[in-house]
Design brief:
There is one protein chain. The protein is an alpha/beta fold and 346 residues long. 39% of the residues lie in helices and 15% in strands. It is built from 15 helices and 13 strands. The strands form 3 sheets. It has a 6-stranded parallel sheet with strand order 3-2-4-5-7-6, with helices on both faces. The protein is globular and about 65 Å long.
Length: 346
């Protein structure tokens, strides 16, 4: 009977009974490690944590497996000589990979994921849109998520991709700021059986952020208070991904000087938008219009959160070819510039 129940669960790609407890503990373990690592590496750590209990996982990469770190310790290559594996090398075929990914989801019994750089999501756009239209649990791992890619220049630096992916109905787009948020992003993508998820990960290392248990729990709401500041903050900084560390540094400096600045980390905007009005107002109080959003991509997406009076620190044009730190400085994605924008309110 137990074997029959397990077979039925796997053919439906239903999660194990102890998944809630197991995934919660894995996220807490990631928090306890306090690692300063690239979120693409945190993603691989999440796969190594979750993979052993999810034989349904079947992954792959469009030529870039060594860079997007989607091979985990239990990965076995699928080939004509070894059809029983769980990892597919697609070659330079982003569209085909995304389409096959969704086909595997439609077949049933599997939780598929496919990976490439975020910039190359453009090649797969029609297939990504179809996954959303068909409401399939298809996971897309998109690394090298911004101008942080650096020396490869504007052809490889994602500027508008994060914003436009967020505009696809029924698509969940996660841009985590550290290892903990990366684990939560994977957990939520695995649990999301009514639509696809895009997981956007960094090439460069990201700083660990300290959180309470309540803050870790609220990550899955898509947006939450990372630095409280005060019940009635003077200003609010909204940030995602690698820019969260800039927001935290800015807020800590200003709060140490006697101000009341809140930082909201918003790794998944569509999930935040789905929260009830009370939660949204608690995170982004309507009576605080002094808001600044920061993300290393096109600014216009964030107007809906900062309002007409708010400000957005972003990248309104294509990137440059230089080390990541130099590119961030060139475009003004720095603590100094963000501090100046917030100070204008204070």
């Amino acid at each position: 009977m137990q074997a029959a129940a397990e077979f039925k669960r796997r053919t439906r790609a239903e999660l194990p009974d102890d998944w809630p407890k197991f995934s919660t503990q894995s996220i807490q373990d990631a928090a306890n490690k306090q690692q300063d690592i690239a979120s693409r590496k945190a993603s691989q750590n999440a796969l190594n944590a979750f993979g052993p209990v999810l034989p349904e996982l079947i992954g792959g990469s469009a030529d870039l497996a060594g860079s997007n770190l989607t091979i985990w310790s239990g990965s076995k290559t699928i080939s004509k000589d070894s059809p029983a594996g769980n990892y597919i090398y697609y070659g330079v075929r982003e569209f085909a990979m995304a389409a096959i990914n969704t086909g595997i989801a439609l077949h049933g019994g599997f939780i598929p994921y496919g990976a490439t750089f975020l910039i190359f999501s453009d090649y797969a756009r029609n297939a990504l849109r179809m996954a959303a239209l068909m409401k399939q649990r298809s996971i897309f791992v998109l690394t090298h998520d911004s101008i942080g890619l650096g020396e490869d220049g504007p052809t490889h630096q994602a500027i508008e991709q994060a914003a436009t992916l967020r505009m696809i109905p029924n698509m969940s787009v996660w841009r985590p700021c550290d290892s903990v948020e990366s684990f939560v992003a994977w957990k939520m993508a695995i649990e999301n059986d009514t639509g696809p998820s895009c997981l956007l990960f960094s090439r460069q290392g990201l700083k660990h952020n300290e959180r309470t248990a309540a803050q870790i729990e609220n990550i899955q709401r898509g947006g939450y208070i990372l630095i409280h500041g005060a019940d009635k903050p003077e200003a609010i900084i909204i940030a995602t991904g690698s820019e969260v560390s800039i927001a935290v540094e800015t807020a800590n400096q200003l709060n140490a000087a006697g101000h009341k600045v809140r930082v909201v980390s918003m790794p998944c905007t569509n999930l935040f938008d789905a929260q009830d009005a009370d939660y949204q107002d608690n995170v982004l109080p309507a009576d605080c219009r002094n808001r600044v959003a920061i993300e290393a991509g096109i600014p216009d997406f964030w107007r809906k959160y900062v309002g007409l009076d708010g400000k957005v620190l972003g990248v309104p044009t294509f990137g440059e070819s230089a080390p990541a730190g130099a590119v961030f400085k060139h475009f003004g994605i720095t603590t100094e510039n963000l501090t100046g924008l917030v100070k204008a309110y204070l």
